[in-house]
Amino acid sequence: MIICDFDGTIIDPSERLYKVYSNCCSLLKIKPLSQKRFINLKRSGKSEVEFISPVKAREKYRKIFKEKIEEKKYLRLDRIYQYAKDFLEDNYKKNEIFLMTNRQNRKNLFWQLDYLEIRKFFQKIILAKEANKSLQFLKSRHLYFIGDTELDIKLGRKLSAFTIAVDYGLRTRRYLKNFKPDKIVSFLKDIKFPTEDVFILKTLNKGLQQVRDRTVFIDLSKEPSLYDLFREKRKQPKMVLINGK
After folding, report:
1. Rounded to 5 degrees, what are φ and ψ at 45?
2. Which sequence ranges form a coiled-coil region, renumbered to this chain (predicted)?
């Protein structure tokens, strides 16, 4: 099963984010940052709120931003990333794809998915505020979690998923490396998924009893001795995927 983030992974929200930010600044009579600096701040993991002055205006900024960021007139500014639709087309019939997003407005989210003509690709759509209800079910599955921020990586780990970070979204590759995802890619098309049941073996101490006659994913960049361990323990997997290949 694939769990996929939305903003920054499937769609590029940068125009919307900056438009809402600059409009908020206008309402508060604050000079906005340039669009380039605003996006660079986001991608380096910093918040534009730190640069709102005076400080007492920050809470009001947060409130206005939250009210506007999911309005339809701004959602129209989002664009699907290159290869994202091809990625969804190629995978939705082979794998279950769940969309998990930090959005709050379900109605406008569904409107946007229809507007972009991509709603059909997702078997289930989960808002982050509803995620806890799905955690136990998801933890029982073999998961790949794809996202563009540190929050996605942390949530993927919470679900015991194989975490894949994309470096073209709202965080840079350099920043994402600090959170040690299992894999970082520059294009969704670079991600290949097995079409059969896969067991993801991440540690030397757990899971060896479950590898016999199964396809096993090993990240040799982290645990170079795992394959030798199979031979030593005489547990022969059906196939071994090295770094996803």
Report:
1. 90, 10
2. none
Give yes or no for a contact between 225 and 201, defined as CB atoms under 8 angstroms apart: no
Dig out the tokens for 76 from the structure: 């129209």
**In the numeric block, which tokens belong to residue 10?**
């499937």
Same domain, 123 and 96: yes
Q: Give me the domain span that covers residue 52.
A: 13-75
| Residue range 122-178, pLDDT digits in tens | 999 998 777 666 666 676 578 899 999 999 999 899 888 899 999 999 999 999 999
Query: 106 and 55: one domain?
Result: no
Cβ-contact 61, 49 below 8 angstroms: yes
Question: What pTM does this model have?
Answer: 0.79
Identify whether 224 is preceded by a cis peptide bond (ω within 30 of 0).
Answer: no
Question: Between vectors from CA 141 to CA 140 and to CA 147, what angle results, nearest 5°?
Answer: 120
Q: Which tokens hold the place of 21?
A: 């930010």
